[in-house]
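Hey, can you fold this one?
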Amino acid sequence: MSAVLVALAAAVLVAPGSVGARRLRGLDPVAARPRTRPRTTSTLGTALVAAAVTALLVGPVPALAAALVATTAHRRLLARRTARRDARAATDLAAAVEVLVAELRVGAHPATACAVAAAEVGEPVHRVLAEAAARARLGGSAADGLHSGDPGLDTELDRVAAAWRVADERGVALAELLDAVRRDLVGRTRFRRRTEAGLAGARATATVLAGLPLLGIALGQAVGAAPVQLLLGSTGGGLLLLVGTVLVCAGLAWSGRITARVGAP
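Sure. Predicted structure:
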């Protein structure tokens, strides 16, 4: 009964909010801003669900192994989603800066240029540029509104904001500075794409190597060695399962860390 209660509590922890609640939050401009659920909470909830279900079906020691597998898989999934989101945001930002430069060169006001550029791209770049345009219309500095709350995108936005501040303080042509930032951003994006393509083979190899123990268990089960019964039906087998799971997950985490460092701009 306790395992069932733990599973239900973990499910409530990771369950998404209702449609009605999201609509009500949309009525408040402050609450309507995108909020990212803490990754630690999401990963912990996934691990708790996996551990509770496995403990209910098999036992406590395999439950620890299941929690490790769920944590590793969830973190790798989050890393891939973050990488795709950052790549998409960088592409949108480069396109927006290109539109911004074109509007400034034909004599548009910076606030108008920001609004036009914002209309050409999606979130979160659209939201950032719309806020910058609003600040410029009210007489403030558009550079102060170039923040998204996303560390990956903010790194690129800081370069745009720095160029904007130099133009405001030194009187340098804003279009020329932003065009230089755009070229730098395009170069970084191309380098990131080439690096990701080069790392695809290494990442696939790490995934295949991590799955080899499962292949060995399947082959042993096929020839009648009964490794599944050993791993799940005895204390010694459960400890072997836990140690093997720790080694596999540590290898995946290590390889992921290496490839992340190589792929960092």
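The CA atoms of residues 7 and 52 lie 5 Å apart. Let me know if you want another pass with a different chain boundary.
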